[in-house]
């Protein structure tokens, strides 16, 4: 293989494996943690790491993530006490010599629990839209957002910053249909959204309940009984047909195994991609469909644990 072939293949590969760094401009790559600019004046707005006072940093009020696991924060704080902060947070300057978190609020919270007074940070000038984009992508890549938080972030980027669903799909590496389906969850009553946010119901449960009469009561019953998504879809179908579960008759009629269909839907909800499962005589295949290099990148990141 010639040197030119190697170079061409490397250039063709560059769009993959970049993830969040593509939005951040590679600010976190090969940057040593130092104490430059900690004393006096405002730290330079560049790619070097600076130690900033924790008290001068605040989270973004529209951060997509609203819920933080306190036990996980305690564990991270203990790790920080022992080893320090391994990865700097990203902040942007605001008025009064203060800073707003762009990425890394969980680390900032853990540093406070560890009772440290400074945190390594990279200061960058990001617009409001860029800040929300980066926070959204960071949380999605780390799988930190529940479906409602993710949907609310998409809605804000569309309503306030005029992003299209296609543009959002490219930014987060998921399908347009996944984004559309998530945003439909915001049509659910607030109390049902709370059940999804709290983990009592999944995205699949929520999607099945959209537009159902007595949605709130039905959602509470489903959460209380621990019904699966497939059981919920069946219950909703019978309700819309005006039948009770007792009236349901077995009618396979050559239809696909409903367990496989439910599994496909569950995986599609998790990945944000179309998933196909073929099964026959105890073996089969799993197909993941992608429509862009960003979506292929996301698949590779998940399959390799982020090491791709």
Automatic annotation (TrEMBL):
Annotated Basic and acidic residues bias: 236-249
The protein's name: ParB family chromosome partitioning protein
Start and end residues of each ParB-like N-terminal domain: 50-140
Organism: Sphingobium lignivorans
Protein function: Involved in chromosome partition. Localize to both poles of the predivisional cell following completion of DNA replication. Binds to the DNA origin of replication.
Segments of this protein annotated with the region Disordered: 1-66, 236-259
Keywords, comma-separated and alphabetical: Chromosome partition, DNA-binding
Pfam families for the chain: HTH_ParB (PF17762), ParB_C (PF23552), ParB_N (PF02195)
Family that this chain belongs to: Belongs to the ParB family.
């Amino acid at each position: 293989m010639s040197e030119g072939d190697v170079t061409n293949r490397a250039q063709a590969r560059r769009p993959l494996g970049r993830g969040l760094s593509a939005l951040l401009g590679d600010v976190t790559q090969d940057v040593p943690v130092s104490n430059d600019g900690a004393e006096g004046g405002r730290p330079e707005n560049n790619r070097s790491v600076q130690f900033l006072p924790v008290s001068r940093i605040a989270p973004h009020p529209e951060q997509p993530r609203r819920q933080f696991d306190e036990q996980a924060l305690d564990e991270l704080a203990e790790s920080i006490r022992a080893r320090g902060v391994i990865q700097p947070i990203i902040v942007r300057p605001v008025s009064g010599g203060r800073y707003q978190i762009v990425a890394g609020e969980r680390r900032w919270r853990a540093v406070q629990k560890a009772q440290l007074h400074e945190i390594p940070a990279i200061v960058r000038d990001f617009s409001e839209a860029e800040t929300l984009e980066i926070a959204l992508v960071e949380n999605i890549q780390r799988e930190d957002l529940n479906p409602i938080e993710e949907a609310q972030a998409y809605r804000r980027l569309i309503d306030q910053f005029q992003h299209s669903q296609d543009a959002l799909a490219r930014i987060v590496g998921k399908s347009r249909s996944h984004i559309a389906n998530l945003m439909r969850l915001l049509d659910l009553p607030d109390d049902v959204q709370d059940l999804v946010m709290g983990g009592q119901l999944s995205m699949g449960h929520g999607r099945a309940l959209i537009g159902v009469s007595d949605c709130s009561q039905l959602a509470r019953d489903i959460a209380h009984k621990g019904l699966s998504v497939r059981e919920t879809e069946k219950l909703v179908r019978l309700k819309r047909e005006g039948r009770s579960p007792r009236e349901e008759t077995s009618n396979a009629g050559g239809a696909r195994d409903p367990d496989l269909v439910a599994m496909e839907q569950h995986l599609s909800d998790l990945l944000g991609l179309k998933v196909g499962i073929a099964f026959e005589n105890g073996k089969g295949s799993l197909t993941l469909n992608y429509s862009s290099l960003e979506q292929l990148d996301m698949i590779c990141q998940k399959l390799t644990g982020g090491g791709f």
